[in-house]
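Supplementary Note 3. Input sequence used for the single-chain structure prediction.
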Amino acid sequence: MPPGLTAVAGLEVGHFTDSRRPTGCTVVIARAGAVAGVDVRGAAPGTRETELLDPVNTIDRVHAVVLAGGSAFGLDAAGGVMRWLEERRIGTIIGVPTEGTTLPVVVPIVPAAILFDLGIGDARIRPDAAAGYAACEAASSGAPAEGNVGAGAGAAVGKLFGLARAMKGGVGTASVEVGGLTVAALVAVNAIGDVVDPRSGRVVAGARSEDGKRLLDTMSALRRGELPAQLDPRGASGAATTIAVVATDAVLSKAEATKVAQMAHDGLARSINPVHTMGDGDVVFALATGASGRAASPTLVGALAADVLAEAVLRAVRAATAIGGDGLPTLPCAADLANADAPRQDPGDLS
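The predicted structure, written as discrete structure tokens, is reproduced below.
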């Protein structure tokens, strides 16, 4: 199996990365459909078709999920994904013939979520329907690319003290196989908070010191009384958002997939601090392809999903590369500050 989200049988991943500025979109395709759930925790979400995934509502299977940059404009990418799927007659069959044929109408179900990257270059350039279509054309069951690609092309982390002191985020993916079941995650990390390694408590990427040469450790700075100078009371000045898809080949109901999405957010809480803020629109989708033919406890799947999502967050910033120049903000990557004395967050230290 390839590592990452495509280790789950029945899923393909494709990226479109815009060459004009760092932005793009990422599509997860489930040609045979996948039972889906969603959980929204951030206070500034941009989403499409999330209400459809409420367990009390009728449709329980989706055919793709789109993650995109471009803020709310990026939701347009889902239209291109729908067109690509419709051309291949992938979707929910509606018993009404298409005009001039005897074929029934096919309606692809494509939920989407976006992140804010309009501060990275020319904000007039953002993912659209053509970008979503191109991401589908690039999709495969091979190992997904990570770093400055797709929805993570314009992502940044550590934004609480301003974009000028932030670092580069990106796309990451990870998977695990346990007892014949596979659980995996793919995430575009674009957070107000720092990325922290849960195993060591060390900050991997995030807000930098005023001279830009060291990792600040946002939470320690806040405890010392170092407050952001220009933080909007509603968090708009740190517009961010981390968006993710977790998936399994287990058989789950729609309600169980929703619970898995809820539990998976714990992976964000372990690896991003602070998370789910007023300026983040954090969203996690959960997909169950059922390809293994085996039912599984949502508690088990949710626990593993949180674990691999935290791993995917770390992989995202470690795979990211620095950007700057040509009208772009200077955003170093984790590797650029890897030799600096990384701060360690100790939850037990309240001094």
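The first strand starts at residue 12 and ends at 17. Residues 77 and 132 are 4 Å apart (CA to CA).
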